[in-house]
Write a structure and sequence with these properties.
Blueprint: H1 2-16, E1 30-37, E2 43-46, E3 56-61, E4 66-69, E5 73-76, E6 84-92, E7 95-107, E8 114-119, E9 132-140, E10 143-154, E11 167-176, E12 182-189, H2 199-209, E13 218-225, E14 228-237, E15 253-257, E16 267-269, E17 274-279, H3 287-304, H4 322-335, E18 343-346, E19 356-357, H5 391-394, H6 398-440, H7 458-480
Helix pairs in contact: 2-6, 4-6, 6-7
Length: 483
């Protein structure tokens, strides 16, 4: 037994003894990284989607060994909405490879004309009073439609506080922009709070269908300012005195009731409202004119709220064009516009002319939007600009109420059909543009100002506004027929 144990012990010792020496392999020397396939594109159009997902990166060693890696980082300081040259860096283990990436100052095609504005020395547009010198070019499908020198400044009140700014444009030489007529004065309206971008267009269409003496012509455009895409805008005829716009004499009056009237250089108040001047211009406005329109508006209000306001000879009807007031009232009821800035026009300082209302303007807070945070579409059963302007009193006169009713009866069917079709036409026209706009301004799921609960996307917002319009027209038909 001892002999067997000795033999097994010797075998175990021999079996455990390994005469093979361990081979030493020195660590590989890391040299850097290499991008096997460069970016598919290094030059992009403004607004084009930037995609570097095709990059294949390997680590390179001194002995020629290469190993593909995925734990690399990309750093690109550029912006798809800002023209210029930037560097794309691919980095791993402290080593980098760089590529030049260029964003051209040419916008991708959205189907809309593009307005390019370049200010002198690229300076910002900071004033709503002083114009900044600039050059403007309008293109459509690679065809240049206009180029010329302009002045550009800010405009608006609350809208000027939003990141997407409204602008006033004055051409050095008047021109017919996008077949809207020849003039020097234009506006660029951003519709920032409007998640459909369509409400102003719809309002102008209603204005045309109600036969307002003048409705501003407007075209959807893209705006590129100093090489930066700033979104979908409307290029609009500015409200001003002209035979092709507000057709009154140069000395005639265009005044605006606005809650921000004190921000304007010249303004006056009545016992109820504040007004600022759109015409005459400040430098042309005489003391006589200022005193006349202020006193006339006060006299009109005193008569309107007097006991004899209905009197056909001494009442309010001697001061206003009742049909124009009824037309303006009906337009804003159809659209349920919550935030109106009424324009009032008077041709001269004689009793031969009366106060007229129009043109229409400013419709971001319409079609069920504005100071409401319930479910949407909002219930349509409410009046606007009723108790907070002259209309509550005017509607107490059967003659004025009959004018509204007659105007509604004449126009409501045509308005209903054509506005529903307008929703379809505009949605199709701006579909690609809205996609780019809301990439630039990611607000579709954000409550903006008093805009109410978001619907979650452009098409849902349009459908909601369309349904509100249908509901609104039905409610108005019932209520107006009771006048």
């Amino acid at each position: 037994m001892k002999k067997i144990f000795l033999i097994l012990s010797v075998f175990f010792i021999v079996a455990c003894h390994d005469d093979t020496e361990e081979v030493y392999e020195p660590p590989r020397v890391f040299l850097g990284i290499k991008v096997l396939n460069s970016p598919e594109k290094t030059t992009f159009l403004l607004g084009e989607t930037i995609d570097f997902s095709n990059l294949k990166v390997v680590e390179v060693y001194a002995d020629g060994y290469e190993k593909e890696i995925t734990n690399f980082t990309l750093n690109w300081t550029g912006n798809q909405f800002k023209a210029g040259a930037n560097i794309l860096s691919v980095t791993a283990r402290g080593k980098s490879v760089s590529f030049d990436i260029v964003i051209e100052n040419k916008l991708i095609d959205t189907g809309l004309p593009v307005v390019y504005v370049n200010t002198d020395r690229g300076q910002g547009i900071l004033s709503k009073i002083d114009y900044t010198n600039a050059n403007m070019t309008i293109t459509d499908q690679d065809k240049t439609l206009y180029t010329g020198s302009i002045g550009i400044r800010g405009r608006g009140h609350a809208t000027w506080t939003y990141p997407k700014k409204p602008y006033r444009v004055k051409l050095d030489i008047k021109a017919n922009l996008l077949d809207m007529g020849s003039d020097r004065n234009w506006a660029l309206m951003p519709n920032y709070c409007d998640k459909t971008l369509m409400r102003t267009s719809i309002a102008f269409k209603v204005s045309e269908l109600l036969d307002f003496p003048w409705t501003p012509k407007a075209r959807f455009v893209e705006l590129v300012l100093n090489g930066e895409y700033v979104g979908n805008y409307m290029l609009v005829e500015a409200v001003r005195q002209d035979k092709n716009r507000v057709d009154i004499p140069e000395t005639g009056f265009i005044i605006e009731r606005d809650g921000y009237y004190q921000e304007d250089p010249v303004w006056f108040t009545t016992s109820r409202f504040g007004f600022s001047f759109k015409n005459p211009d400040l430098e042309d406005l005489s003391n006589e004119q200022f005193n006349y329109i202020r006193d006339y508006m006060n006299e009109f209000e005193n008569v309107l709220y007097s006991e004899s306001f209905k009197d056909p000879d001494k009442g309010y009807a001697n001061y206003i064009n009742s049909a124009s007031f009824a037309r303006w009232f009906l337009c804003h009821q159809i659209l349920a516009n919550m935030d109106t800035n009424p324009y009032i026009v008077k041709e001269d300082m004689t009793d031969k002319s009366k106060l007229s209302m129009g043109p229409v303007w400013d419709f971001e807070w319409s079609l069920g939007i504005g100071w409401y945070y319930g479910s949407r579409p909002r219930p349509a059963d409410y009046f606007v600009v009723y108790t907070d302007f002259y209309f509550y009193r005017l509607m107490q006169d059967d003659r004025f109420a009959s004018t509204v009713k007659r105007m509604w009866s004449t126009n409501q069917s045509r308005i209903y059909q054509e506005i529903l079709q307008h929703f379809v036409n505009v949605q199709k026209e701006i579909m690609r543009s809205q996609e780019l706009n809301f990439k630039r301004w990611d607000i579709q799921n954000v409550v903006v100002s008093v805009g109410g609960v978001p619907m979650g996307g452009f098409e849902k917002e349009v459908a909601c506004d369309r349904q509100f319009f249908i509901n609104r027209m039905s409610w108005l038909n019932n209520i107006i027929n009771q006048f």
